[in-house]
Design goal:
alpha+beta; 5-stranded antiparallel beta sheet; single chain; 6-stranded mixed beta sheet; Glutaredoxin
């Protein structure tokens, strides 16, 4: 009997310790700048629930599947139904940081401020995003790219006195189109269509008094290789707007929450990892070709290589590959082998037809695994992205414009050896 009581006491103590450990597990990652990122909760969105339970909140659970006693976000209308999940993240240490979420069925999704916070969460900096998963999936890795650095001006414009949204489409060399802002009630609203997804972006308005008005924007639509952002500036008169700046900054960190539960009560063991975007430093060896479908001939084993990572759906990428093709014979005489890698998913017949029509004579491979992971491994920060190696396939230069290639080749002693 004493043995039984002793075992029972041990069991109760161990259970209590496990419960306390679960409560202490806040699913948090710490960045070097003192910023912490915590995945607070998950919920499943099903539009049918709105009709069956009017006025009731959606149930939330913690990333490991245990229930959340209180709903952190009171909003009930976020999602597109089916297998859509909403995630809520808490940021501490830098309210200016922003990011995007990456999932298996979604390529670019903004991480927005949660504006309908529940009691007890009012003082928290909460960010929300949604991701879709296959309906049968019970757990998943959730990745968020976070930008914390300095903003840089990618382009700027001064508004003309007769411009309207119907005659003012402002282009840019940085792959964006700005539709002239307009007045909507008491606010100014602007629209930007862009192909930029590898950097965080925002639109900043300056009024005639020099005051700055900032909006992070919300995604207003997505297409193949395109994202449309809608920016709203509250309590601002369009007649007072003097100039506009389109600003961008790189994503400094990738935060991955592994084994997140996609169903309430389905218990998982969550892990958090944080990485900075990869970079191939001069002198480093090329990474493996895992995830890239290409068959390099044996003759390239002892020849300098020029890799061009591109996206057929982006004009700058196409122009870069075509420009390389026009000089491919001259590069071949110098002993340089060009290899192009298509990063996004396109039908191979479509890619082959474009290669034929544009007389691309060098090898063109494709990324068949996780695009984001492959770009991270190869240090690809934007597209098109060039990587030059010596005959031993050590990196000589990366990330340079194609019009600088001749100068780099002329100066590179490693290539001449």
């Amino acid at each position: 009997m004493r043995l039984f009581i002793g075992l029972l006491v041990c069991f109760v103590v161990i259970s209590a310790c496990v419960g306390m450990a679960d409560e202490r597990n806040t699913f948090t990652g710490a960045l070097p700048e003192g910023v912490t990122v915590e995945l607070v909760g998950v919920r499943h969105f099903d539009a049918r629930y709105l009709d069956r339970t009017p006025g009731k909140p959606f149930p939330w659970w913690r990333p490991d599947g245990t229930p959340l006693a209180d709903s952190p976000d009171t909003r009930r209308d976020l999602g597109v139904g089916g297998a859509t999940h909403q995630f809520l993240m808490r940021i501490a240490g830098d309210p200016s940081c922003n990011g995007r979420a990456i999932g298996p069925l979604d390529r670019y999704l903004s991480v927005d401020l949660a504006t309908q916070k529940a009691p007890g969460f009012e003082k928290d900096d909460l960010r929300r995003f949604r991701l879709r998963f296959p309906s049968e999936q019970k757990q998943a890795d959730v990745t968020v790219a976070l930008a914390t650095g300095q903003w840089e001006v990618a382009d700027s414009w001064r508004l003309g006195p007769t411009w309207t949204p119907y005659n003012g489409l402002l282009g840019s060399c940085d792959r964006i189109i700005l539709r002239c802002p307009e007045q909507k009630d008491a606010d100014v609203v602007a629209e930007v269509t862009q192909v930029i997804t590898d950097r965080a972006t925002r639109l900043v308005l300056f009024d005639k008094d020099g005051q700055r008005h900032v909006s992070e924007g919300e995604i207003g639509g997505e297409g193949v290789g395109l994202v449309r952002h809608i920016y709203r500036y509250e309590n601002l008169e369009y007649s007072q707007v003097d100039r506009i700046e389109f600003q961008a900054r790189p994503y400094d960190y990738w935060i991955t929450f592994r084994n997140v539960s996609l169903a309430a009560g389905y218990r998982t063991q969550v892990e958090v990892s944080i990485k900075k975007p990869g970079s191939l430093l001069p002198g480093s060896q090329l990474p493996s070709f895992d995830g890239i479908e290409i068959d390099l001939p044996e003759e390239t084993d002892s020849r300098p290589l020029l890799f061009c990572f591109f996206d057929l759906q982006q004009r700058p990428s196409r122009n870069c590959v075509v420009q390389l093709a026009s000089q491919s014979e001259a590069f071949k005489e110098k002993g340089l082998t060009i290899v192009a890698v298509q990063t996004s998913r396109v039908a191979r017949p479509e890619l082959d037809m474009w290669i034929k029509d544009n007389h691309i004579s060098f090898l063109v491979g494709t990324v068949r695994a996780d695009e984001e992971k492959t770009r991270f491994t190869w240090g690809v920060k934007s597209l098109p992205w060039l990587i030059l190696t010596d005959k031993d396939h050590r990196v000589c230069a990366e990330g340079f414009p194609v019009d600088q290639l001749d100068g780099i080749l002329a100066q590179s002693a490693e290539i001449k050896k």
